[in-house]
Design goal:
Elements: E1 2-4, H1 9-41, H2 48-86, E2 89-91, H3 104-107
Antiparallel strand pairs: 1-2
Helix pairs in contact: 1-2
């Protein structure tokens, strides 16, 4: 049995930031798609709303990444504080030996 006593705040924040940046790219693409559908649905209307959609789509990876970084850091700090008070997460880990995979040429007998 092992216990996770603390989490490195910066490493956790970086992981959260990168993951949320990827989510921001997906959200941005979704907003562009919705905006393009809106443009196609109303061809005679003013197109100023599309500017806002494109600005949000361009900024969403950075906004999501920044918020992910901050919330990852806060989450790691909170975990470390709670874990120091009540213990932490207990885990049972098992060591698995690496599998030996010989190449097919090495396993055939020489003639």
């Amino acid at each position: 049995m092992v216990r996770l006593r603390s989490v490195d705040v910066m490493s956790c924040a970086k992981i959260y930031g990168v993951l949320h940046m990827a989510i921001g790219v997906l959200i941005g693409l979704l907003f562009v798609l919705i905006g393009l559908i809106g443009l196609a649905a109303a061809p005679g209307q003013q197109k100023f709303g599309m500017i806002g959609v494109l600005v949000f789509a361009g900024l969403s990876p950075f906004l999501y990444g920044a918020f992910g970084f901050v919330f990852g850091a806060v989450g790691a700090l909170l975990y470390n504080w709670v874990a120091s008070s009540i213990g932490g997460i207990q885990m049972e880990l098992e060591a698995v030996p690496p599998q030996y995979n010989p190449s097919p040429a090495a396993s055939t007998p020489a003639r």
